[in-house]
Design goal:
Number of strands of chain A: 11
Largest interface: A-B, 29 and 26 residues
Shape of chain B: globular
Helix content of chain B: under 10%
Mean pLDDT of chain A: 92
Mean pLDDT of chain B: 90
Structural class of chain B: mainly beta
Radius of gyration of chain B: 14 Å
Low-confidence stretches of chain A: none
Order of helices and strands of chain A: EEEEEEEEEEE
Number of helices of chain A: 0
Oligomer: heterodimer
Chain lengths: 114, 115
């Protein structure tokens, strides 16, 4: 069965550079979530999209932006990178918007900012 | 700020032992409780989603119960095997009127099963 795809899997950037992370949800899933997991921390919710519209926002810095495209894939754009942005970034997708719906996670993108 | 807590933080058991861990969460504004199994270098794998007080779910040797009134869920593993070694995460599904739900994760319980 198709799973959530994230690219790239690993990314190394310098401070003040920009990065774009991509997420391809499971086919027919209409909802995408982004989570950030810092070293030794729980995953923290960043932002979510339903039917190409932003639906919820968590602890996402103003330097980050995201969108969901017509094919339902999503991109997380990160600018003016800081050392503290180094983390594992997970994308998850679900069918529908209810809290009861299972979220399926991608393998994550490990971002290292030097 | 909602806080989801898991205990213990880590657990070492012998193959064949049965074990259980706890997830505690605020009982107000409860929508759903998710359990995930997360192996190193892989993405979290959904185990259960529970919504009703008293819910019990089972998948093979793993089962879970839910008490929304007192705000806790237990995950049980019967006859642990080395391949059960992973971090077990619980997550509270919340919805404050946004169009989607988001998950608030606990800190996880790291299970190591020794042969």
């Amino acid at each position: 069965a198709a799973g959530v795809i994230q690219s790239p899997r690993h990314l190394i950037k310098e401070k003040r550079e920009t990065a774009t992370l991509k997420c391809y949800p499971i086919p027919r899933h209409d909802t995408v979530y982004w989570y950030q997991q810092g070293p030794g921390q729980d995953p923290q919710f960043l932002i979510s999209f339903y039917e190409k519209m932003q639906s919820d926002k968590g602890s996402i810095p103003d330097r980050f932006s995201a969108q969901q495209f017509s094919d339902y894939h999503s991109e997380l754009n990160m600018s003016s990178l800081e050392l503290g942005d180094s983390a594992l970034y997970f994308c998850a997708s679900s069918l529908g918007v209810s809290s009861y719906n299972e979220q399926f996670f991608g393998p994550g993108t490990r971002l290292t900012v030097l | 700020i909602l806080n989801v807590e898991q205990s213990p933080q880590s657990l070492h058991v012998q193959e064949g032992d049965s074990t259980n861990f706890t997830c505690s969460f605020p009982s107000s504004n409860f929508y759903a409780l998710h359990w995930y199994r997360w192996e190193t270098a892989k993405s979290p794998e959904a185990l259960f989603v529970m919504t009703l007080n008293g819910d019990e779910k089972k998948k093979g040797r793993i089962s879970a119960t839910l008490n929304t009134k007192e705000g806790y869920s237990y995950l049980y593993i019967k006859g642990s095997q080395p391949e059960d070694s992973a971090t077990y995460l619980c997550a509270l599904g919340v919805n404050y009127g946004g169009a989607t739900n988001k998950l608030i994760f606990g800190t996880g319980t790291l299970l190591a099963v020794q042969p």
